[in-house]
Amino acid sequence: MRSIEEIEALIEYEKQYINSKNKNTRRMAKESLKRFEAKLRELITSGIPLDLLKEICAAERDGRYVVLPCKEGDTVYKLCPNNNANCDRCAWGSCGCNGLSARNAKSINTMPHRSLKWIWLFREDFGKTVFLTREAAEAALAEQEAQE
């Protein structure tokens, strides 16, 4: 069984032949694309109940579908204005890090096992003051320090 990545690569490969001057090559590429796209849909939706797929698609069409930047329980790294990498008040922004811009950061707080509520509240801060990897947080802190 092929992986999603392999099928995506095959689709990209076949796309280069869609505009071929050779009519037979174009036809074969279109047929292959249809097969690969059907297989990709099957792999992506495998194990997901049809009712849930319908609900997700309806939410997307209605503008209600949201993809969170991480899942509940993931460790995230938050820039903190305090020079304390273990700031307990950071968890809900009570240390002043709510709305923090990278210019105020002094340390990186490792925040394990965040709840869905926390992820939702800070969703717009991901990539700005909240990061999925320590490396990304360190790069943002270094960039802020270089600007000072």
General description of the model:
This protein is mainly alpha-helical. The protein has helices at 4-15, 23-45, 50-62, 116-121, 134-147, and strands at 76-80, 107-111, 130-131. The chain has two domains: 4-62, no CATH class; 76-147, no CATH class. The chain is built from five helices and three strands, in the order αααββαβα. It has a three-stranded antiparallel β-sheet with strand order 2-1-3, covered by helices on one side. The protein starts with a helix and ends with a helix.
**What's the total count of β strands?**
3
Largest sheet: 3 strands, antiparallel
Number of individual domains: 2
Number of helical elements: 5
Span of the ends, CA to CA:
53 Å
* Rg calculated over all Cα atoms: 22 Å
SSE string: HHHEEHEH
Instruction: Give the uncertain stretches in residue-range form.
Output: none
Quickly describe the structure:
By secondary structure, the protein is mainly alpha-helical. The chain has helices spanning 4-15, 23-45, 50-62, 116-121, 134-147; strands at 76-80, 107-111, 130-131.
List the helices and strands and how they pair.
Elements: H1 4-15, H2 23-45, H3 50-62, E1 76-80, E2 107-111, H4 116-121, E3 130-131, H5 134-147
Antiparallel strand pairs: 1-2, 1-3
Q: Descriptors for this entry?
A:
148 residues; three-stranded antiparallel sheet; mainly alpha
